[in-house]
Amino acid sequence: xxxxxxxxxxxxxxxxxxxxxxxxxxxxxxxxxxxxxxxxxxxxxxxxxxxxxxxxxxxxxxxxxxxxxxxxxxxxxxxxxxxxxxxxxxxxxxxxxxxxxxxxxxxxxxxxxxxxxxxxxxxxxxxxxxxxxxxxxxxxxxxxxxxxxxxxxxxxxxxxxxxxxxxxxxxxxxxxxxxxxxxxxxxxxxxxxxxxxxxxxxxxxxxxxxxxxxxxxxxxxxxxxxxxxxxxxxxxxxxxxxxxxxxxxxxxxxxxxxxxxxxxxxxxxxxxxxxxxxxxxxxxxxxxxxxxxxxxxxxxxxxxxxxxxxxxxxxxxxxxxxxxxxxxxxxxxxxxxxxxxxxxxxxxxxxxxxxxxxxxxxxxxxxxxxxxxxxxxxxxxxxxxxxxxxxxxxxxxxxxxxxxxxxxxxxxxxxxxxxxxxxxxxxxxxxxxxxxxxxxxxxxxxxxxxxxxxxxxxxx
Length: 460
Description:
By secondary structure, the protein is mainly alpha-helical. The chain has helices at 46-57, 61-72, 74-102, 107-115, 117-147, 159-164, 172-187, 197-223, 239-245, 248-256, 259-268, 275-301, 322-356, 367-387, 392-417, 425-457, and strands spanning 31-34, 37-40, 148-151, 154-157. The N and C termini lie far apart (50 Å).
């Protein structure tokens, strides 16, 4: 996938290159002095970078993609998934090109270079809103899968409840507490994003395992006549149904958001000329997973597909070993989200620290501040996951606001600003298209959501 003016050769970034003024370097240098002497780090590998970026992309958004097929139909839905991948690559290429020109080492630094300190603050606020929302969603989903949830007066038992019955130790609060202390906290303590490359590879493997099981179930039920052919095109009957089509856009935007980790991965890459191939490889892998999940998830459940397709796997599949397969799907994806958590938490911590302590030394060089910011953020997300009852309205809100700014509006704005006169006419035309598409589609999505909410709440 290639869009935009991509430089075929990119000079390896010199460590002596001076970053944007007042930029706080968010990463440890490749050779740094620790308590036990010098810690050698020769740079992240290509595969490690691909896995970290892929894990950033594949999060909870994949669970909502089959539901977008219910709204858009398979032909339009799959086309938009692929189209969104091309736009994402184009926006990241713009970010990298202008970052190199301005010697920026972070997304905030790029926006500061283009629009001053307010541009940097705007990026930091958007990353905080987007990532806190996503991490809360992840933790809520894990609680739903492991401990169960009650929706519309109906209790959906969790995996642990199904296995062992109802006990205090498999209740939602205790399960999330143990998960936070035993998994999230240790993985969130790493100071280099490359330290998460192994867990990222495992996370991608778990997402693929979820996909393979789903495909297997779909093929079995298709062969035995247990499913009907899904709808190919959207069901458009009136103006309201047209507006409803736009509600899928925020979900697709959130599904590809990874821009806040691009600089961190690029900074640690052994050869930064490989960053664009890393982006293409990660997007190709994730798009394949997205398309197959969307197609087979919608094929399996049809018009009964829920907003979170994971919730469809708590009912009988009508096939041998159905309950075992249900549990395998839910557990594999819950484990996947556990390993996605630290990769999304990493930029959240950096941006919150940069917003609160803009003049302090880099966070990785201050152990006390690093521990304090990490502890406070994890505690806040843990409390939010225990007290927020619904996730999907917040999910769409994030996609229609912070996520669309990070993914498309900010990179396009930097390109149109063009401080270094390196943008082509094609770049600027594409940037205008990105902004118009983002603003129009998300205004329509917000209007459609508000209209649907008003209709549900109004007396009959």
